[in-house]
Write a structure and sequence with these properties.
alpha+beta, elongated, four-stranded antiparallel beta sheet, Helix Hairpins, single chain
C-alpha cells in the first residue's frame, strides 16, 4: 500500500498514534475492522481508525534566536570631532557602576584652537563698534535730508492748491455765462420758429392763388379757342362764361397783390429771426468752448494738486523709509554686536561642554562586554565600550515575513537552550518590530537560511521577556523558541488528514460503526495545528472511530513503511 506524503513527513507522530489505536483496538475491539469484500471471500480489507478524543491543542511557530541583555548601552564619546585616546580605565569583564570613568580623550589640539578663536572674537568686537558709530552718523543725516525734501514738497502743494482755486472760479464764471447764452438761444429759437411758421403759411397761400390764377387763365384760353369755331348761339354762351372767368381772374389778381405784400413782410421777419437764431447759436457754442476750456484748466489744476499731494506723500515716505532704514541699520549694528557677544558666550559654553566630554562615563550599571578603544588611537566608530546587564536577560529572534503577522505582543513562548538541557523556560513576547531588521533567504524546502540562495526575504525582530532568571544562561547563547500562536483546551479533535471536503465545500469525516459499516459525518472545524483540527460543530462526538485516510487498499493489509525502528508499525 502506498503511504500518503503527509504520513511520511510525520511518520513518528503517526506511528505513535497508530500504536495507541492498536492498543485500544485490542481492548475494545474496534480499532481495526476486518470485513469481507464482495469481490472475494478469501480477501480481507483492513480499516485503520482513530478514536475521537478531547485534547489540548496548540498552534505554534518555531524559531531560532539568541539570548541578549535586557539593557545594553554602547558608550562612545559624543564629541564634535575625533580625538586620540589618552587613557583607558576598563577592560572586558569589569563590573562598572553608572558614572564610572571608562576612558579619556586627548583634547590638547582643541584647547589650542580655542585660544586662536578667543583673539579673533576680540578683534571682531572692535569692528562691530566701528560699524555702530557709522550707522549712527548716517541715521542723523537721513533725518536732516528727509525733512528738507518734505518742506519743498509742501511748498509745491500750496502753489498748486492756489492755482486750482483760480481755475475753479473761472470754471464757475464760464458756467454762468453759458447758462445766459443758452437762454438767449432758446428765445431766438422760439422767435425763429414762430416767424418760420407765419412765413410758410403766407407762402402757401401765395402759391395756392398762383395755382388758381394759372388754372383760371387756362380755362379762359380754352373757352376763347372754342368760341372761334362755335355757332353764333354757342358763341354767346361761351362769351358769358369767359366774362365770368375774367371777373374771377381779376379778383384773384387783386388778392395775389395783397398776399404778396404780406409775403414780403413775413419773409423779412423770417430772415431777421433766422439771422438772430444763428447768432445766438454761435454765441452759445463759444460759451460751451469757454466752459470746456475752464473745465480742462480746472482738471489740470486738480491733477497738479494731486501730483503735489503725491509728491508730499512720496517725499514723506522716502524720508521715513530712509530714516527707518538707517534706524534699522543702527539696530542691526546693535543686534549684530549683541549677537556676536551672545554667540561668543554660547561658543564658550559649547567649548566648555566639549571639554567636559574628554572623559567618557558609564551610562548604566553592568559588565563591560566589549572595548574598542586603545591608548594613542583615534576612535571614530560606534560601540567604543559596550556595557550589558548580564543578570537581566531576554531572548530575541528574527521572524520571516511570511510568519510575522501571526506574532503578537503578550503571546506565550517556550524557550530551550543547550545549556539548560531539557528545561523549558517560559517567556512572553514584549516587542515586535514594525520594520524589517535584515534580509534572509529561503531555500527550496522553505527553511530560513543566511546563505545567499533563492530570493531575498525580510525578517522582523521579536523580543521575548523571560518569566524568571536562570543562572545557566549567558549572553549570545542560541535559543530554540516555540511561539504559542493559538491554543484550545479540551477541544474535540481529529487528524487533519482525515477531514474531507465535499463538492459543495462542506467538510466531513468517515466513521466506522460498531457493525463494521462506514458513514460520512459532516463537521464544522476550528483551529488547525500541524496534525490535528478542532471540531466545533456537527454530529461527531467523542468516542466515535474516524477512518484514517489512505489506509484501506482492498488487499486486506495496511502498512506504514519508511519509518525508523522506534516508530515502525505493521498491521496484519
Amino acid at each position: 500500500m502506498k503511504i500518503p506524503e503527509f504520513l511520511k513527513s510525520h511518520k513518528k507522530a503517526i506511528a505513535g498514534a497508530l500504536a495507541a489505536v492498536l492498543v485500544v483496538s485490542a481492548a475494545g475491539g474496534f480499532g481495526v475492522a476486518k470485513t469481507m469484500g464482495a469481490q472475494s471471500t478469501e480477501e480481507e480489507v483492513a480499516t485503520v481508525t482513530i478514536p475521537v478524543t478531547k485534547q489540548n491543542l496548540e498552534k505554534t511557530l518555531n524559531a531560532t534566536g539568541t539570548i541578549i541583555s535586557c539593557e545594553e548601552s554602547s558608550v562612545t564619546a559624543n564629541t564634535t570631532e575625533s580625538y586620540p585616546v589618552a587613557e583607558v580605565y576598563v577592560k572586558v569583564g569589569d563590573v562598572v557602576k553608572k558614572g564610572d570613568a571608562l576612558y579619556k580623550l586627548d583634547m590638547s589640539s582643541f584647547e589650542e584652537e580655542l585660544e586662536y578663536k578667543k583673539k579673533a572674537a576680540e578683534l571682531d568686537a572692535q569692528s562691530k563698534a566701528l560699524e555702530k558709530a557709522e550707522a549712527d552718523r548716517q541715521y542723523s543725516e537721513a533725518q536732516k535730508n528727509g525733512q528738507n525734501e518734505i518742506n519743498e514738497a509742501n511748498n509745491n502743494l500750496t502753489q498748486a492748491q492756489s492755482d486750482a482755486q483760480n481755475a475753479a472760479w473761472a470754471q464757475q464764471s464760464a458756467t454762468g455765462n453759458l447758462d445766459g447764452l443758452k437762454n438767449k438761444e432758446k428765445e431766438a429759437k422760439k422767435s425763429f420758429e414762430k416767424s418760420e411758421k407765419a412765413y410758410n403759411k403766407i407762402a402757401g397761400k401765395v402759391e395756392d392763388v398762383k395755382k388758381s390764377i394759372s388754372t383760371l387763365t387756362g380755362e379762359i384760353d380754352d373757352l376763347k379757342s372754342k368760341a372761334k369755331d362755335a355757332s353764333e348761339d354757342d358763341k354767346a354762351t361761351i362769351q358769358d362764361k369767359i366774362s365770368k372767368k375774367e371777373s374771377e381772374l381779376a379778383e384773384l389778381n387783386s388778392k395775389a397783390q395783397e398776399l404778396n405784400t404780406e409775403y414780403e413782410t413775413a419773409k423779412a421777419d423770417y430772415d431777421k429771426c433766422s439771422q438772430d437764431y444763428e447768432q445766438a447759436t454761435a454765441s452759445r457754442t463759444e460759451g460751451e468752448q469757454a466752459l470746456a476750456d475752464a473745465n480742462e484748466a480746472a482738471s489740470t489744476a486738480a491733477k497738479s494738486v494731486a501730483s503735489a499731494e503725491n509728491s508730499v506723500k512720496t517725499a514723506s515716505d522716502s524720508a521715513n523709509s530712509s530714516v527707518a532704514s538707517q534706524a534699522n541699520a543702527v539696530k542691526s549694528a546693535e543686534v549684530s554686536a549683541q549677537t556676536e557677544a551672545l554667540t561668543k558666550e554660547q561658543e564658550e559654553k559649547k567649548n566648555a561642554r566639549e571639554l567636559e566630554k574628554a572623559t567618557v562615563y558609564a551610562t548604566q550599571d553592568g559588565t563591560v562586554t566589549n572595548v574598542n578603544v586603545k591608548v594613542g588611537n583615534t576612535y571614530t566608530g560606534t560601540d567604543a565600550v559596550v556595557i550589558d546587564d548580564v543578570n537581566n536577560l531576554k531572548a530575541t529572534a528574527d521572524i520571516d515575513e511570511a510568519q510575522i503577522s501571526n506574532v503578537k505582543t503578550g503571546q506565550r513562548v517556550q524557550i530551550k537552550t543547550d545549556a539548560t538541557g531539557d528545561e523549558i523556560l517560559q517567556g512572553t513576547v514584549s516587542f515586535v518590530s514594525p520594520t524589517p531588521t535584515k534580509n534572509s533567504s529561503t531555500n527550496s524546502e522553505g527553511e530560513s537560511s543566511t546563505a545567499s540562495v533563492s530570493k531575498s526575504r525580510a525578517t522582523y525582530r521579536v523580543d521575548v521577556d523571560l518569566d524568571s532568571a536562570n543562572e545557566t544562561l549567558r549572553l549570545g547563547m542560541t535559543a530554540k523558541m516555540t511561539f504559542i500562536l493559538e491554543s484550545s483546551e479540551e477541544a474535540l479533535a481529529v487528524p487533519s488528514a482525515d477531514i474531507m471536503t465535499a463538492e459543495d465545500g462542506s467538510k466531513y469525516v468517515t466513521v466506522l460503526n460498531d457493525d463494521g459499516t462506514t458513514e460520512d459525518v459532516y463537521v464544522e472545524t476550528g483551529m488547525e495545528t500541524d496534525f490535528y483540527t478542532e471540531i466545533t460543530g456537527g454530529s461527531l462526538t467523542e468516542g466515535m472511530n474516524v477512518v484514517e485516510s489512505g489506509y484501506s487498499d482492498g488487499t486486506g493489509d495496511a502498512m506504514v513503511d519508511g519509518m525508523d525502528a522506534d516508530g515502525g508499525i505493521v498491521i496484519e
